[in-house]
Design a protein that fits this description.
Blueprint lengths: L1 E6 L2 E6 L14 E5 L2 E3 L1 H14 L3 E4 L12 H11 L3 E5 L18 E6 L3 E9 L4 E5 L12 E5 L10 H5 L8 H4 L3 E5 L5 H10 L4 E5 L17 E4 L1 H13 L4 E4 L3 E4 L27 E4 L3 E4 L18 E4 L2 H18 L5 H10 L21 H4 L6 H4 L4 E2 L4 H10 L4 H4 L23 E6 L2 E10 L4 E8 L4 E6 L2 E4 L5 E10 L9 E8 L4 E10 L1
Parallel strand pairs: 5-6, 6-7, 7-16, 10-11, 11-12, 12-13, 20-27
Antiparallel strand pairs: 1-2, 3-4, 8-9, 8-14, 8-15, 10-14, 17-18, 19-21, 21-25, 22-24, 22-26, 23-25, 26-27
Helix pairs in contact: 1-2
Length: 537
Amino acid sequence: MVPKASVFGFGKGTAKGGSPRARVAAYKVCWPPVSGNECFDADILAAFDVAIQDGVDVLSVSLGGDPTAFFNDSVAIGSFHAIKHGIVVVCSAGNSGPADGTVSNIAPWQITVGASTMDREFRSVVVLGNNMHYKGQSLSSKVLPDKKFFPLLSAADAKLANASIQNATLCQAGALDPKKVTGKILVCLRGKNARVDKGQQAALAGAVGMILANDFLTGNEIIADAHLLPASHINYTDGLAVFAYINSTKNPMARIMPVTTLIGTKPAPFMAAFSSKGPNTITPEILKPDITAPGVSVIAAYTEAEGPTNEDFDKRRVQFNSVSGTSMSCPHVSGIVGLLKTRYPNWSPAAIKSAIMTSATTLDNANERILNASYIKAGPFSYGSGHIQPNLAMDPGLVYDLSTKDYLNFLCTLGYNDTLISAFSQDNYKCPGSINLANFNYPSITIPNLVGSITVTRTVKNVGTPGTYRAQVQKPVGISVKVKPKKLKFKKVGEEKTFIVSLKVKKGEAIKEYVYGQLVWSDHVHYVRSPIVVKAV
Protein backbone atom coordinates (compact mmCIF):
# COMPACT_ATOMS: atom_id res chain seq x y z
CA MET A 1 0.00 0.00 0.00
CA VAL A 2 1.32 3.47 -0.89
CA PRO A 3 -0.23 6.22 1.23
CA LYS A 4 -0.63 9.81 -0.04
CA ALA A 5 -0.36 8.92 -3.73
CA SER A 6 -1.58 11.77 -5.96
CA VAL A 7 -0.91 13.70 -9.16
CA PHE A 8 0.09 17.25 -8.16
CA GLY A 9 -1.98 16.75 -4.99
CA PHE A 10 -5.15 15.74 -6.89
CA GLY A 11 -6.91 12.41 -6.25
CA LYS A 12 -4.95 11.92 -3.04
CA GLY A 13 -5.35 8.51 -1.44
CA THR A 14 -3.71 5.15 -0.79
CA ALA A 15 -2.62 3.33 -3.95
CA LYS A 16 -2.92 -0.44 -3.94
CA GLY A 17 -2.66 -3.13 -6.59
CA GLY A 18 -5.36 -5.59 -7.61
CA SER A 19 -3.28 -8.36 -5.97
CA PRO A 20 -1.49 -6.32 -3.27
CA ARG A 21 0.85 -9.12 -2.12
CA ALA A 22 1.81 -10.38 -5.57
CA ARG A 23 5.41 -10.20 -6.72
CA VAL A 24 5.78 -8.44 -10.06
CA ALA A 25 8.32 -9.43 -12.73
CA ALA A 26 8.58 -7.15 -15.77
CA TYR A 27 9.81 -8.40 -19.16
CA LYS A 28 10.94 -5.67 -21.56
CA VAL A 29 9.89 -6.40 -25.15
CA CYS A 30 9.68 -2.89 -26.64
CA TRP A 31 12.87 -0.94 -27.40
CA PRO A 32 13.75 2.35 -29.11
CA PRO A 33 12.23 2.12 -32.62
CA VAL A 34 14.13 0.45 -35.47
CA SER A 35 12.66 1.39 -38.88
CA GLY A 36 9.32 2.29 -37.26
CA ASN A 37 9.06 -0.89 -35.16
CA GLU A 38 9.66 -1.05 -31.44
CA CYS A 39 8.15 -4.37 -30.33
CA PHE A 40 9.56 -7.25 -32.33
CA ASP A 41 7.97 -10.72 -32.45
CA ALA A 42 11.29 -12.35 -31.44
CA ASP A 43 11.45 -10.25 -28.25
CA ILE A 44 7.78 -10.86 -27.44
CA LEU A 45 8.13 -14.65 -27.82
CA ALA A 46 11.40 -14.65 -25.85
CA ALA A 47 9.60 -12.88 -22.97
CA PHE A 48 6.76 -15.44 -22.98
CA ASP A 49 9.39 -18.21 -22.89
CA VAL A 50 11.23 -16.71 -19.92
CA ALA A 51 8.01 -15.92 -18.04
CA ILE A 52 6.81 -19.52 -18.49
CA GLN A 53 10.20 -20.79 -17.29
CA ASP A 54 10.06 -18.43 -14.28
CA GLY A 55 6.71 -19.97 -13.29
CA VAL A 56 4.56 -16.81 -13.32
CA ASP A 57 0.81 -17.18 -12.58
CA VAL A 58 -0.57 -14.28 -14.58
CA LEU A 59 0.73 -12.41 -17.62
CA SER A 60 -0.46 -8.84 -18.14
CA VAL A 61 0.20 -7.91 -21.77
CA SER A 62 -0.43 -4.23 -22.48
CA LEU A 63 0.61 -4.35 -26.13
CA GLY A 64 -0.74 -5.42 -29.48
CA GLY A 65 -0.78 -4.64 -33.19
CA ASP A 66 -3.46 -4.78 -35.85
CA PRO A 67 -5.60 -7.94 -35.68
CA THR A 68 -3.90 -10.68 -37.68
CA ALA A 69 -4.19 -14.45 -38.26
CA PHE A 70 -3.17 -16.41 -35.14
CA PHE A 71 -0.26 -18.24 -36.82
CA ASN A 72 1.20 -14.80 -37.62
CA ASP A 73 0.51 -13.24 -34.20
CA SER A 74 3.38 -13.50 -31.70
CA VAL A 75 1.20 -12.47 -28.73
CA ALA A 76 -1.37 -15.16 -29.66
CA ILE A 77 1.33 -17.84 -30.07
CA GLY A 78 3.15 -16.85 -26.85
CA SER A 79 -0.18 -16.71 -24.97
CA PHE A 80 -1.11 -20.21 -26.18
CA HIS A 81 2.11 -21.66 -24.74
CA ALA A 82 1.46 -19.82 -21.46
CA ILE A 83 -2.10 -21.19 -21.26
CA LYS A 84 -0.73 -24.75 -21.72
CA HIS A 85 1.21 -24.16 -18.49
CA GLY A 86 -1.88 -22.89 -16.65
CA ILE A 87 -0.85 -19.22 -16.87
CA VAL A 88 -3.71 -16.74 -17.41
CA VAL A 89 -2.95 -14.17 -20.13
CA VAL A 90 -4.69 -10.77 -20.01
CA CYS A 91 -4.34 -8.43 -23.02
CA SER A 92 -5.32 -4.91 -24.03
CA ALA A 93 -8.06 -4.61 -26.68
CA GLY A 94 -6.29 -1.62 -28.28
CA ASN A 95 -6.82 2.14 -28.50
CA SER A 96 -8.13 2.40 -32.07
CA GLY A 97 -11.83 3.06 -31.29
CA PRO A 98 -14.53 4.11 -31.72
CA ALA A 99 -14.46 2.49 -35.19
CA ASP A 100 -15.92 -1.02 -35.49
CA GLY A 101 -13.68 -4.04 -36.08
CA THR A 102 -10.59 -2.46 -34.50
CA VAL A 103 -10.16 -4.87 -31.56
CA SER A 104 -6.83 -6.72 -31.43
CA ASN A 105 -5.60 -9.63 -29.26
CA ILE A 106 -8.59 -11.64 -30.40
CA ALA A 107 -7.53 -15.21 -29.55
CA PRO A 108 -10.10 -17.09 -27.43
CA TRP A 109 -7.40 -18.12 -24.93
CA GLN A 110 -6.62 -14.45 -24.13
CA ILE A 111 -8.73 -12.24 -21.83
CA THR A 112 -9.18 -9.12 -23.97
CA VAL A 113 -9.92 -5.92 -22.07
CA GLY A 114 -11.62 -2.70 -23.25
CA ALA A 115 -11.44 0.61 -21.35
CA SER A 116 -14.14 2.54 -19.54
CA THR A 117 -14.34 5.43 -17.09
CA MET A 118 -14.64 5.39 -13.30
CA ASP A 119 -16.72 7.62 -11.03
CA ARG A 120 -13.89 10.07 -10.34
CA GLU A 121 -13.34 13.37 -12.10
CA PHE A 122 -10.60 15.98 -11.90
CA ARG A 123 -12.99 18.82 -12.61
CA SER A 124 -11.93 22.18 -13.97
CA VAL A 125 -14.86 24.45 -14.77
CA VAL A 126 -14.79 26.86 -17.73
CA VAL A 127 -16.77 30.08 -17.13
CA LEU A 128 -17.64 32.24 -20.13
CA GLY A 129 -18.32 35.98 -20.18
CA ASN A 130 -22.05 35.21 -20.54
CA ASN A 131 -21.84 33.35 -17.18
CA MET A 132 -22.31 29.91 -18.73
CA HIS A 133 -20.38 27.20 -16.83
CA TYR A 134 -18.97 24.08 -18.52
CA LYS A 135 -17.54 21.13 -16.57
CA GLY A 136 -14.18 20.10 -18.03
CA GLN A 137 -11.34 18.00 -16.65
CA SER A 138 -7.65 18.67 -16.15
CA LEU A 139 -4.61 18.01 -13.99
CA SER A 140 -2.93 21.37 -14.66
CA SER A 141 -0.66 22.23 -11.78
CA LYS A 142 -0.81 25.93 -12.74
CA VAL A 143 -3.84 28.13 -12.04
CA LEU A 144 -5.08 31.46 -13.40
CA PRO A 145 -5.62 34.43 -11.03
CA ASP A 146 -8.83 33.97 -9.04
CA LYS A 147 -12.04 35.31 -10.69
CA LYS A 148 -10.10 37.11 -13.44
CA PHE A 149 -11.49 36.88 -16.99
CA PHE A 150 -9.20 36.76 -20.03
CA PRO A 151 -9.91 37.36 -23.73
CA LEU A 152 -11.04 34.13 -25.44
CA LEU A 153 -9.83 33.17 -28.92
CA SER A 154 -10.65 30.27 -31.24
CA ALA A 155 -7.40 28.73 -32.52
CA ALA A 156 -8.77 28.98 -36.09
CA ASP A 157 -8.63 32.79 -35.69
CA ALA A 158 -5.04 32.58 -34.38
CA LYS A 159 -3.43 31.11 -37.49
CA LEU A 160 -0.17 32.28 -38.95
CA ALA A 161 -0.53 33.66 -42.48
CA ASN A 162 1.15 30.62 -44.08
CA ALA A 163 -0.60 27.97 -41.92
CA SER A 164 -3.74 26.02 -42.82
CA ILE A 165 -6.93 26.66 -40.85
CA GLN A 166 -7.06 22.94 -39.99
CA ASN A 167 -3.57 22.92 -38.44
CA ALA A 168 -4.32 26.10 -36.49
CA THR A 169 -7.69 24.75 -35.24
CA LEU A 170 -5.84 21.67 -33.92
CA CYS A 171 -3.11 23.90 -32.35
CA GLN A 172 -0.32 22.13 -34.22
CA ALA A 173 3.31 23.23 -34.12
CA GLY A 174 4.10 26.24 -36.32
CA ALA A 175 0.45 27.11 -36.98
CA LEU A 176 -0.29 29.72 -34.28
CA ASP A 177 0.49 33.46 -34.45
CA PRO A 178 1.93 34.77 -31.12
CA LYS A 179 0.75 38.32 -31.99
CA LYS A 180 -2.87 37.09 -31.93
CA VAL A 181 -2.53 34.59 -29.06
CA THR A 182 -0.52 36.41 -26.36
CA GLY A 183 -2.44 37.02 -23.12
CA LYS A 184 -5.51 35.07 -24.24
CA ILE A 185 -7.22 31.75 -23.46
CA LEU A 186 -7.01 29.68 -26.65
CA VAL A 187 -9.66 27.13 -27.72
CA CYS A 188 -8.06 24.11 -29.46
CA LEU A 189 -9.87 21.22 -31.15
CA ARG A 190 -8.94 17.64 -30.20
CA GLY A 191 -7.36 15.36 -32.81
CA LYS A 192 -4.10 14.54 -34.67
CA ASN A 193 -1.41 15.83 -32.25
CA ALA A 194 -1.21 14.92 -28.55
CA ARG A 195 -3.61 16.74 -26.20
CA VAL A 196 -0.71 17.99 -24.07
CA ASP A 197 1.18 19.13 -27.18
CA LYS A 198 -1.72 21.47 -28.00
CA GLY A 199 -1.27 23.09 -24.60
CA GLN A 200 2.48 23.39 -25.20
CA GLN A 201 1.90 25.06 -28.61
CA ALA A 202 -0.63 27.44 -27.03
CA ALA A 203 1.87 28.31 -24.26
CA LEU A 204 4.72 28.83 -26.76
CA ALA A 205 2.48 31.24 -28.67
CA GLY A 206 1.87 33.20 -25.45
CA ALA A 207 -1.57 31.89 -24.36
CA VAL A 208 -2.36 32.16 -20.63
CA GLY A 209 -4.63 29.11 -20.78
CA MET A 210 -6.23 26.54 -23.08
CA ILE A 211 -9.69 25.08 -23.50
CA LEU A 212 -9.45 21.73 -25.30
CA ALA A 213 -12.73 20.87 -27.08
CA ASN A 214 -13.66 17.37 -28.26
CA ASP A 215 -14.59 16.59 -31.85
CA PHE A 216 -17.70 14.57 -32.78
CA LEU A 217 -15.99 11.16 -32.53
CA THR A 218 -14.57 11.66 -29.03
CA GLY A 219 -17.96 12.88 -27.73
CA ASN A 220 -18.05 12.91 -23.93
CA GLU A 221 -14.68 11.23 -23.32
CA ILE A 222 -12.74 13.90 -21.47
CA ILE A 223 -9.33 13.08 -20.06
CA ALA A 224 -7.45 14.67 -17.18
CA ASP A 225 -3.96 15.48 -18.48
CA ALA A 226 -1.02 17.13 -16.70
CA HIS A 227 -1.09 20.19 -19.00
CA LEU A 228 1.78 22.68 -18.82
CA LEU A 229 -0.52 25.71 -18.62
CA PRO A 230 -3.92 26.26 -16.97
CA ALA A 231 -6.25 24.17 -19.15
CA SER A 232 -9.60 22.39 -19.21
CA HIS A 233 -10.74 19.56 -21.51
CA ILE A 234 -14.47 19.84 -22.37
CA ASN A 235 -16.83 17.54 -24.27
CA TYR A 236 -18.14 17.93 -27.82
CA THR A 237 -21.48 19.57 -26.96
CA ASP A 238 -19.87 22.09 -24.60
CA GLY A 239 -17.19 22.77 -27.21
CA LEU A 240 -19.87 23.71 -29.75
CA ALA A 241 -21.36 26.11 -27.18
CA VAL A 242 -17.97 27.75 -26.56
CA PHE A 243 -17.33 28.22 -30.30
CA ALA A 244 -20.88 29.61 -30.72
CA TYR A 245 -20.27 32.09 -27.86
CA ILE A 246 -17.01 33.27 -29.47
CA ASN A 247 -18.85 33.90 -32.75
CA SER A 248 -21.73 35.69 -31.02
CA THR A 249 -19.84 38.52 -29.32
CA LYS A 250 -17.20 41.12 -30.15
CA ASN A 251 -15.12 40.62 -27.01
CA PRO A 252 -15.44 37.00 -25.83
CA MET A 253 -14.03 36.44 -22.34
CA ALA A 254 -13.49 33.36 -20.16
CA ARG A 255 -11.82 32.01 -17.06
CA ILE A 256 -10.65 28.53 -16.07
CA MET A 257 -11.28 27.55 -12.47
CA PRO A 258 -8.75 25.49 -10.43
CA VAL A 259 -8.97 21.69 -10.49
CA THR A 260 -10.98 19.84 -7.83
CA THR A 261 -11.27 16.05 -7.29
CA LEU A 262 -14.83 14.67 -7.36
CA ILE A 263 -15.91 11.13 -6.42
CA GLY A 264 -19.24 9.44 -7.25
CA THR A 265 -19.82 11.18 -10.60
CA LYS A 266 -22.58 9.87 -12.90
CA PRO A 267 -22.91 8.24 -15.34
CA ALA A 268 -20.01 5.85 -14.73
CA PRO A 269 -18.63 3.73 -16.11
CA PHE A 270 -19.08 4.68 -19.75
CA MET A 271 -16.93 3.44 -22.61
CA ALA A 272 -13.83 5.38 -23.62
CA ALA A 273 -14.01 6.59 -27.23
CA PHE A 274 -10.49 5.23 -27.85
CA SER A 275 -11.36 1.70 -26.68
CA SER A 276 -11.09 -0.67 -29.68
CA LYS A 277 -14.30 -2.41 -30.70
CA GLY A 278 -15.57 -5.64 -32.21
CA PRO A 279 -16.57 -7.43 -34.26
CA ASN A 280 -13.56 -9.74 -34.23
CA THR A 281 -12.23 -9.46 -37.81
CA ILE A 282 -10.28 -12.76 -37.73
CA THR A 283 -12.83 -15.12 -36.13
CA PRO A 284 -16.16 -13.26 -35.88
CA GLU A 285 -17.64 -16.28 -34.01
CA ILE A 286 -15.62 -15.26 -30.92
CA LEU A 287 -16.94 -12.08 -29.28
CA LYS A 288 -14.17 -9.56 -28.50
CA PRO A 289 -13.40 -7.66 -26.32
CA ASP A 290 -14.29 -10.04 -23.47
CA ILE A 291 -14.66 -7.46 -20.69
CA THR A 292 -14.15 -3.78 -19.88
CA ALA A 293 -12.37 -2.25 -16.87
CA PRO A 294 -11.21 1.21 -15.67
CA GLY A 295 -8.85 2.75 -18.22
CA VAL A 296 -9.42 6.53 -18.17
CA SER A 297 -7.44 8.97 -15.97
CA VAL A 298 -5.96 6.15 -13.88
CA ILE A 299 -3.44 7.26 -11.23
CA ALA A 300 -0.35 5.10 -11.70
CA ALA A 301 3.25 5.03 -10.47
CA TYR A 302 5.42 6.63 -13.13
CA THR A 303 8.98 6.73 -14.41
CA GLU A 304 11.09 9.76 -13.49
CA ALA A 305 13.06 9.37 -16.72
CA GLU A 306 10.35 11.44 -18.44
CA GLY A 307 7.89 14.20 -17.60
CA PRO A 308 4.19 13.45 -17.03
CA THR A 309 3.32 14.41 -20.62
CA ASN A 310 6.10 12.24 -22.20
CA GLU A 311 7.09 15.28 -24.26
CA ASP A 312 10.72 16.45 -24.51
CA PHE A 313 9.70 19.97 -23.47
CA ASP A 314 8.28 18.75 -20.13
CA LYS A 315 10.99 19.05 -17.48
CA ARG A 316 8.66 18.21 -14.56
CA ARG A 317 9.04 14.87 -12.76
CA VAL A 318 6.30 13.03 -10.86
CA GLN A 319 6.08 9.82 -8.84
CA PHE A 320 2.49 9.26 -9.99
CA ASN A 321 0.74 10.24 -13.20
CA SER A 322 -2.76 10.05 -14.63
CA VAL A 323 -2.71 7.71 -17.64
CA SER A 324 -5.43 6.53 -20.04
CA GLY A 325 -5.64 3.55 -22.40
CA THR A 326 -6.47 -0.15 -22.58
CA SER A 327 -2.89 -0.54 -21.26
CA MET A 328 -4.34 0.74 -17.97
CA SER A 329 -7.52 -1.39 -17.97
CA CYS A 330 -5.64 -4.62 -18.76
CA PRO A 331 -3.64 -4.71 -15.46
CA HIS A 332 -6.84 -4.01 -13.46
CA VAL A 333 -8.10 -7.35 -14.75
CA SER A 334 -4.70 -9.01 -14.21
CA GLY A 335 -4.83 -7.99 -10.54
CA ILE A 336 -8.28 -9.56 -10.15
CA VAL A 337 -7.02 -12.71 -11.91
CA GLY A 338 -4.25 -12.85 -9.26
CA LEU A 339 -6.86 -12.89 -6.49
CA LEU A 340 -8.86 -15.61 -8.28
CA LYS A 341 -5.68 -17.67 -8.78
CA THR A 342 -4.91 -17.38 -5.06
CA ARG A 343 -8.39 -18.41 -4.06
CA TYR A 344 -8.77 -21.21 -6.64
CA PRO A 345 -5.24 -22.47 -7.43
CA ASN A 346 -6.60 -25.49 -9.35
CA TRP A 347 -8.88 -23.56 -11.71
CA SER A 348 -7.94 -23.51 -15.40
CA PRO A 349 -7.29 -20.17 -17.16
CA ALA A 350 -10.63 -20.66 -18.99
CA ALA A 351 -12.53 -21.12 -15.69
CA ILE A 352 -11.00 -17.89 -14.31
CA LYS A 353 -11.88 -16.07 -17.51
CA SER A 354 -15.44 -17.43 -17.41
CA ALA A 355 -15.87 -16.28 -13.77
CA ILE A 356 -14.83 -12.74 -14.75
CA MET A 357 -17.03 -12.63 -17.86
CA THR A 358 -20.25 -14.18 -16.54
CA SER A 359 -20.29 -11.98 -13.42
CA ALA A 360 -19.78 -8.67 -15.27
CA THR A 361 -22.44 -5.95 -15.41
CA THR A 362 -23.89 -4.06 -18.37
CA LEU A 363 -25.35 -1.38 -16.07
CA ASP A 364 -23.77 1.86 -14.85
CA ASN A 365 -24.07 3.59 -11.45
CA ALA A 366 -27.37 5.21 -12.50
CA ASN A 367 -28.70 1.65 -13.09
CA GLU A 368 -28.96 2.31 -16.83
CA ARG A 369 -27.29 0.46 -19.72
CA ILE A 370 -23.59 1.36 -20.07
CA LEU A 371 -23.17 4.17 -22.63
CA ASN A 372 -20.47 4.94 -25.17
CA ALA A 373 -18.56 8.23 -25.24
CA SER A 374 -21.36 9.83 -27.30
CA TYR A 375 -23.80 8.85 -24.50
CA ILE A 376 -25.56 6.35 -26.79
CA LYS A 377 -26.18 2.84 -25.41
CA ALA A 378 -23.06 0.71 -25.93
CA GLY A 379 -23.19 -3.00 -26.76
CA PRO A 380 -21.15 -6.21 -26.54
CA PHE A 381 -18.76 -5.04 -29.31
CA SER A 382 -17.73 -2.23 -26.93
CA TYR A 383 -17.70 -4.01 -23.57
CA GLY A 384 -17.91 -7.75 -24.32
CA SER A 385 -19.67 -9.31 -21.34
CA GLY A 386 -19.71 -5.98 -19.49
CA HIS A 387 -17.82 -4.08 -16.80
CA ILE A 388 -15.79 -6.20 -14.39
CA GLN A 389 -17.19 -6.89 -10.88
CA PRO A 390 -14.34 -8.44 -8.85
CA ASN A 391 -16.34 -9.45 -5.77
CA LEU A 392 -18.94 -11.34 -7.83
CA ALA A 393 -16.19 -13.00 -9.92
CA MET A 394 -14.95 -14.64 -6.67
CA ASP A 395 -18.19 -16.70 -6.53
CA PRO A 396 -19.47 -17.23 -10.09
CA GLY A 397 -21.57 -20.35 -9.37
CA LEU A 398 -20.98 -21.98 -12.77
CA VAL A 399 -18.10 -21.75 -15.25
CA TYR A 400 -17.63 -22.54 -18.94
CA ASP A 401 -14.37 -24.51 -19.02
CA LEU A 402 -11.95 -25.17 -21.89
CA SER A 403 -8.75 -27.21 -22.17
CA THR A 404 -5.66 -26.96 -24.40
CA LYS A 405 -7.23 -29.67 -26.57
CA ASP A 406 -10.34 -27.49 -27.05
CA TYR A 407 -8.15 -24.58 -28.19
CA LEU A 408 -6.29 -26.85 -30.64
CA ASN A 409 -9.65 -28.06 -31.99
CA PHE A 410 -10.62 -24.40 -32.37
CA LEU A 411 -7.56 -23.95 -34.63
CA CYS A 412 -8.65 -27.06 -36.54
CA THR A 413 -12.04 -25.45 -37.32
CA LEU A 414 -10.12 -22.57 -38.96
CA GLY A 415 -8.60 -25.09 -41.37
CA TYR A 416 -5.10 -24.98 -39.87
CA ASN A 417 -2.87 -27.76 -41.19
CA ASP A 418 -0.24 -29.69 -39.19
CA THR A 419 2.48 -27.14 -40.02
CA LEU A 420 0.44 -24.17 -38.76
CA ILE A 421 -0.67 -26.05 -35.64
CA SER A 422 2.97 -26.92 -34.87
CA ALA A 423 3.53 -23.24 -33.89
CA PHE A 424 1.06 -23.84 -31.02
CA SER A 425 1.71 -27.48 -30.10
CA GLN A 426 4.99 -29.39 -29.96
CA ASP A 427 3.12 -32.70 -30.13
CA ASN A 428 1.90 -33.79 -33.54
CA TYR A 429 -1.74 -32.88 -32.99
CA LYS A 430 -4.17 -34.57 -35.35
CA CYS A 431 -7.45 -32.71 -35.94
CA PRO A 432 -10.60 -34.76 -35.20
CA GLY A 433 -13.12 -35.34 -37.99
CA SER A 434 -15.98 -32.85 -37.74
CA ILE A 435 -16.06 -30.06 -35.19
CA ASN A 436 -18.38 -27.09 -35.21
CA LEU A 437 -16.97 -23.72 -34.15
CA ALA A 438 -20.44 -22.71 -32.87
CA ASN A 439 -20.10 -25.39 -30.14
CA PHE A 440 -16.79 -24.04 -28.83
CA ASN A 441 -17.47 -23.72 -25.08
CA TYR A 442 -16.99 -19.93 -24.87
CA PRO A 443 -18.81 -17.88 -22.18
CA SER A 444 -20.51 -15.80 -24.92
CA ILE A 445 -22.55 -16.92 -27.96
CA THR A 446 -21.87 -15.21 -31.30
CA ILE A 447 -23.42 -16.26 -34.62
CA PRO A 448 -22.15 -13.89 -37.34
CA ASN A 449 -24.02 -15.37 -40.33
CA LEU A 450 -27.28 -16.98 -39.25
CA VAL A 451 -29.17 -18.60 -42.12
CA GLY A 452 -32.50 -20.05 -40.97
CA SER A 453 -31.60 -21.70 -37.68
CA ILE A 454 -28.71 -23.12 -35.67
CA THR A 455 -28.33 -25.16 -32.50
CA VAL A 456 -25.28 -24.58 -30.29
CA THR A 457 -24.06 -26.68 -27.38
CA ARG A 458 -22.52 -25.44 -24.14
CA THR A 459 -21.32 -27.17 -20.96
CA VAL A 460 -21.23 -25.57 -17.51
CA LYS A 461 -19.37 -26.80 -14.44
CA ASN A 462 -20.63 -26.18 -10.91
CA VAL A 463 -18.00 -24.41 -8.75
CA GLY A 464 -20.43 -23.23 -6.05
CA THR A 465 -22.99 -24.71 -3.71
CA PRO A 466 -25.36 -27.46 -4.93
CA GLY A 467 -28.53 -26.01 -6.45
CA THR A 468 -30.93 -25.73 -9.36
CA TYR A 469 -30.28 -23.17 -12.07
CA ARG A 470 -33.02 -21.94 -14.40
CA ALA A 471 -32.47 -20.32 -17.80
CA GLN A 472 -33.68 -16.80 -18.46
CA VAL A 473 -33.36 -15.48 -22.02
CA GLN A 474 -33.50 -11.97 -23.42
CA LYS A 475 -34.00 -12.53 -27.15
CA PRO A 476 -32.19 -10.49 -29.79
CA VAL A 477 -34.58 -8.57 -32.10
CA GLY A 478 -36.03 -10.83 -34.82
CA ILE A 479 -34.47 -14.01 -33.42
CA SER A 480 -36.23 -16.76 -31.47
CA VAL A 481 -34.12 -18.44 -28.77
CA LYS A 482 -34.93 -21.75 -27.05
CA VAL A 483 -32.83 -23.39 -24.30
CA LYS A 484 -33.03 -27.12 -23.51
CA PRO A 485 -33.18 -28.22 -20.75
CA LYS A 486 -34.60 -25.11 -19.06
CA LYS A 487 -33.19 -26.10 -15.68
CA LEU A 488 -29.94 -27.69 -14.51
CA LYS A 489 -29.68 -29.41 -11.13
CA PHE A 490 -26.22 -29.70 -9.55
CA LYS A 491 -25.56 -31.96 -6.55
CA LYS A 492 -21.82 -31.38 -6.07
CA VAL A 493 -18.82 -29.21 -6.93
CA GLY A 494 -17.15 -30.12 -10.23
CA GLU A 495 -20.32 -31.61 -11.71
CA GLU A 496 -20.88 -30.74 -15.38
CA LYS A 497 -24.14 -30.33 -17.33
CA THR A 498 -24.64 -29.76 -21.05
CA PHE A 499 -27.45 -27.71 -22.63
CA ILE A 500 -28.37 -26.61 -26.14
CA VAL A 501 -29.46 -23.19 -27.40
CA SER A 502 -31.52 -23.06 -30.61
CA LEU A 503 -31.54 -19.77 -32.49
CA LYS A 504 -33.92 -19.18 -35.39
CA VAL A 505 -34.46 -16.20 -37.69
CA LYS A 506 -38.08 -14.99 -37.44
CA LYS A 507 -39.32 -14.46 -41.00
CA GLY A 508 -40.07 -10.82 -41.75
CA GLU A 509 -38.81 -9.64 -38.34
CA ALA A 510 -35.03 -10.05 -38.65
CA ILE A 511 -32.78 -7.11 -39.47
CA LYS A 512 -29.55 -7.50 -41.41
CA GLU A 513 -27.23 -6.17 -38.74
CA TYR A 514 -25.92 -7.42 -35.41
CA VAL A 515 -28.57 -7.75 -32.67
CA TYR A 516 -27.96 -8.55 -29.02
CA GLY A 517 -29.56 -10.58 -26.28
CA GLN A 518 -28.46 -12.61 -23.27
CA LEU A 519 -28.76 -15.96 -21.55
CA VAL A 520 -28.68 -16.02 -17.73
CA TRP A 521 -28.52 -19.20 -15.63
CA SER A 522 -29.66 -18.37 -12.10
CA ASP A 523 -30.21 -20.17 -8.79
CA HIS A 524 -31.34 -16.80 -7.29
CA VAL A 525 -27.90 -16.40 -5.66
CA HIS A 526 -25.67 -16.49 -8.74
CA TYR A 527 -26.47 -14.91 -12.11
CA VAL A 528 -24.31 -16.55 -14.79
CA ARG A 529 -24.68 -14.20 -17.77
CA SER A 530 -23.67 -14.79 -21.40
CA PRO A 531 -24.18 -12.23 -24.18
CA ILE A 532 -25.89 -13.51 -27.34
CA VAL A 533 -24.75 -11.72 -30.52
CA VAL A 534 -26.40 -12.61 -33.84
CA LYS A 535 -26.40 -11.35 -37.41
CA ALA A 536 -29.05 -12.81 -39.70
CA VAL A 537 -28.18 -13.20 -43.38
